[in-house]
Amino acid sequence: MIWRALRVRPQSRFYLVILLAVVTLGTGMATGFGLFYRLLYVLALTVVVGYGWNWVTLRGLNTVAKGRTRQAQIGECIEEAITITNSSLLPKYALEIQDLTDLPGYSGGIVTGLFGGKTGTWNMKMLARKRGRYQLGPLRVSNLDPFGLFRREREFGSVEPVLVFPRTHELPEFRVSPSELSGDSSARRRAHNVTPQVSSIRDYAPGDSLSRVHWNSSARLGKLMSKEFDLGRAAEVWIVVDLDRNVQAGELEESTDEYGVSIAASLAKRHVESGLPVGLLSEGDKRYFLAAETGVGQYQRIMQLLALSRAEGTTPLELMLANEEPLWTHLSTVIVITSSPRPSWVAALRELTRRGVRVVVVLVDAASFGSAIQTLDVLEDVVETGMPVYVVGKGEDIPSALARSRPARDSAGRVVA
């Protein structure tokens, strides 16, 4: 049977027993009563038995972890199978097993027992609550003697890495669809599928469809020739995530940076699946940058980069936008995800729109995460620029929040979320 590992403090009990023994000895010497000496013998025997029990229990044990999860998304469980072998003849009671992982928010374990010469396996689950690269292991096995006086610990196994990715959502109603983007590519790339753009011809290969055959060249050269296609010119989608530590709020999975990164991952998935080139830019503990590319490989690179990103940046969003402005052209769509309340970044985006760059803003409301930061103070400024804006608060369903982009106005004409 499995229980939560209990937190106890055996040292305080041990010192209490020693103090009681000293008092008993002093009282016995002062009064001469034999009862106090017998009580002293009982206390001494308790200490000896407790120490011996604790020492014997952790001998003859071997503990290994198998089947560890190597990758997970936030909200999923990281699992491992813990196998304990008792090679001695003595039974082992009250064994506390804990994985010394550095996963944020994890503090669990199991308590179990094992008969002599037996092997048992238990499954341990740890909830992934923060993106990043962490370690699983080593395993710590500890035991408390029956009197609660001594605790002994041993560590087993090795350390293995686990990568926690941000949570992704399907965004079927997100309104910045490929059909609304200006143009259809920013760079010419070779494509394996049939597109309207033909870049060259090559020898016919078995399996090529008749639609790929270039008949004029085939007639002129006397052999079948197939057309090569490229992607043409398509609009690039750039996802910009604000990881400035000064505008973040909340903890673990319920934090502004986790919501922002989750939105970024979901938007990347949507646009990559639409066949559009997607780029990523962020300033966290370092600069995170991926040039706009297409394909599943690009999505995997984006997820990897977002998983490793940390919201420890010191560069304000407006400064990052100014520094990276040459990246974007009139064929670019920039989606900015931030919880910053400063109006200066709105002015920086307004300059981008004047150059023909399409801009979309996603505001993650820091106040809803218990912060004094009033993200929505800039909402009206964003709306007045004509840029589509979405608002996401703590606990809100992200697909639903990203399905509406027109904030309403109150009776005074002010913009409200």
Structural notes for this entry:
The protein is of the alpha+beta class and 417 residues long. The chain is 27% helix and 30% strand. It has nine helices and 23 strands. It has a six-stranded mixed beta sheet with strand order 18-17-14-19-20-21, sandwiched between helices. A four-stranded antiparallel beta sheet has the order 5-4-8-9, covered by helices on one side. Strands 1-3-6 form a three-stranded antiparallel beta sheet, with no helix packed on it. 33% of the residues are buried. The model is unreliable at 1-8 and 177-196 (pLDDT under 50).
Question: How do the helices and strands line up, and which of them pair or pack?
Answer:
Layout lengths: L9 H22 L2 H24 L3 E6 L4 E3 L3 E10 L5 E8 L10 E5 L4 E9 L4 E5 L2 E6 L6 E6 L3 E6 L24 E2 L5 E7 L11 H7 L3 E6 L5 E6 L8 E2 L2 E2 H18 L4 E6 L3 E7 L2 H13 L8 H8 L7 E7 L5 H11 L3 E7 L14 H7 L3 E4 L5 H4 L6 E2 L5 E2 L1
